[in-house]
Amino acid sequence: MAASPPLSSAELLARAERLAGESIARIASALALPVPPDLKRHKGWVGHLVERALGASAGSLPVPDFQTLGIELKTLPVDAHGYPYESTFVCTITIAELLGDEWSQSRVCHKLTRVLWMPLDGDRQRALSERRFGSPFLWSPTPEQMEALKFDWEELTGRVARYGVDAISGHIGQHLQIRPKAKNAAARRRGLDEDGGSAENMPRGFYLRPSFTGSILRSHFGLPERS
Fold first, then answer.
1. 202 C-beta neighbours (distance < 10 Å), count
2. Has residue 226 been placed in a domain?
3. What b/e sequence results for 180-195 when a residue is b if at least 16 CB atoms lie within 10 Å of its CB, and e otherwise?
């Protein structure tokens, strides 16, 4: 059974800390959830598992996972040295929102204002069920980090507004990037083309680069720079 929503950030963090060192198999068993053999066809499954274990209430709503606390949950697969394996999904892109939002009203800003990070053994050579969670922590961007994220967001959304989402590559943005968010190239979502007309686009999402999430981990845990 899924946990009830936590009433405070302290309660949430205490719940998360109880998951540290636990395997995915043990947490899934407590929730009566079958563990998939891998994540190739189950993107987001680990995040869903932790949401249920901690009592997240947002579901698919475009708000932080723990609505009343204003806290977003992010699992972070890392290697043996604590470095992230991959980019971290933030939220999907809605073209209508991009054309009207300011940074302070954007979903990216709302979701990254307060984050509960859940590091996870990301070794793909190890069975998914055997992977364990590390020590969780709550994080909010420093003023410098927030300004850097805002700069990337404004550059990316400005380019989308001017040229269309298909003109954006994952190379743009120092800390924040836009990438396709779809299981395959056949997935399409209606959006705007470069002339402002209607077009079918592959769903896109905002992602944090591993270099950015890695800097968060290094700062919190006192990890050395990658040699």
1. 17
2. no
3. bbbeeeeeebebbeee
Number of domains in the chain: 1
Q: Which residues pair with 180 in a beta bridge?
A: 204
User: How does strand 198-201 pair with strand 72-78?
Assistant: unpaired
Q: Does 201 reside within a domain?
A: yes
Environment class of residue 166 by beta-carbon count within 10 Å: exposed (0-12), middle (13-18) or buried (19+)? middle
Is 2 part of any domain? no
Domain that holds residue 114: 9-221
Residue 137 lies in a domain: yes
* 10-residue averages of pLDDT along the chain (227 residues): 89 97 97 92 91 86 87 96 94 75 91 97 94 97 98 92 81 93 49 40 86 96 82
Q: How far apart are CA 225 and CA 227, in angstroms?
A: 6
